[in-house]
Specification:
Helix content is about 45%, strand content about 15%. It is of the alpha/beta class. The protein folds into two domains: about 210 residues, Alpha-Beta Complex (2-enoyl-CoA Hydratase, Chain A, domain 1), CATH 3.90.226; about 50 residues. The strands form two sheets. The chain has a seven-stranded mixed β-sheet with strand order 1-2-3-4-5-7-10, with helices on both faces. Strands 6-8-9 form a three-stranded mixed β-sheet. Strand 3, helix 1 and strand 4 form a beta-alpha-beta unit. The chain is globular, with a radius of gyration of 19 Å. The protein starts with a strand and ends in a 9-residue tail after the last helix. About 40% of the residues are buried.
Length: about 270
């Protein structure tokens, strides 16, 4: 994989073909969120949206832990790296963008979770589109237990993603849950053996990358743009985004490839 210069000391960003891998890299603090890390995350999501060859991103954590939440002291002070400080000044709301709360990437993001994904770690997971979790992983939104509030957006997003009573259980009690319980709630897609989350996420990413990129992006945008709309208005948005995909060169290539019994060669055209 190619290490990209947008990486920061606490966030490693690598690309391999159509897949971008973003690694929270602060293992000495269980990958707790810092300003340095959030600048790296925000930069990675902007890169994923802007780079035509990137079709999907994976978010993971270094050395067996996804993310243990916010390091309030580290988030409250700027990075010690002058280059990262300069980038932070150029990215408005980099905290929210890094957390996938604002301006999420136009390409899907897959979580690959080992170990702890708690508080801000679970909030990051809730901001992703597909989720692969190791069987001994621990998830949870602990904020209410500490008289805090989940500012990453989970109080809004979680009840829209899983049944209301499950969402309120997690949000109001602050209790930790296992990977198996997260799967039973519909919070994650797959539970895999420990140490296999990233490999499984890469397999899933390759499946997504093999789909038509225009179709994938339009489906993702349709979901986001129709939140809160009544069905007739939502279907109008769906048509506006869907018909250009149907008429694209990629759609013609998909039909040809099916007829000729070969893998399609999509070009996002």
């Amino acid at each position: 994989m190619e290490l990209l210069p947008i990486s920061t000391p606490h966030c490693r960003v690598e690309r391999d073909g159509h897949v971008l891998t973003v690694t929270m890299n602060r293992p000495e603090a269980r990958n707790a969120l810092s300003s340095d890390m959030l600048v790296g995350l925000a930069s990675a999501w902007a890169y994923a949206s802007a780079e035509p060859e990137i079709r999907v991103a994976i978010l993971t954590g270094a050395e067996g832990t996804f993310c243990s939440g916010a390091d309030l002291k580290a988030m409250g002070r700027p990075s010690t790296d002058p280059e990262v400080q300069a980038r932070a000044a150029q990215i408005p709301d980099f905290h929210w963008k890094g957390l996938l709360r604002a301006d999420p990437p136009t390409k899907p993001v897959i979580s690959a979770v080992e170990g702890y994904a708690v508080a801000g770690g679970t909030e990051l997971l809730v901001g992703t589109d597909l989720r692969v979790v190791a069987e001994s992983a621990t998830l949870g939104l602990f904020e209410a237990k500490r008289a805090l509030f989940p500012m990453g957006g989970s109080a809004v997003r979680l009840p829209r993603q899983i049944p209301y009573c499950h969402a309120m259980d997690l949000l109001l009690t602050g209790r930790p849950i296992t990977a198996a319980e997260a799967l039973s709630m519909g919070l994650v897609n797959r539970v895999v053996p420990d140490g296999q989350a990233l490999a499984a996420a890469r397999e899933l990413a390759e499946d997504v990358a093999a789909s038509g990129p225009l179709a994938v992006q339009a489906i993702l945008r349709t979901y986001r743009d129709t939140l809160g709309l009544a069905e007739p208005e939502a279907l109008k948005v769906s048509d506006e985004l869907g018909w250009p995909v149907i008429g694209s060169e990629d759609a013609k290539e998909g039909t040809r490839a099916f007829r000729e019994k070969r893998p399609p060669a999509y070009r996002a055209l």
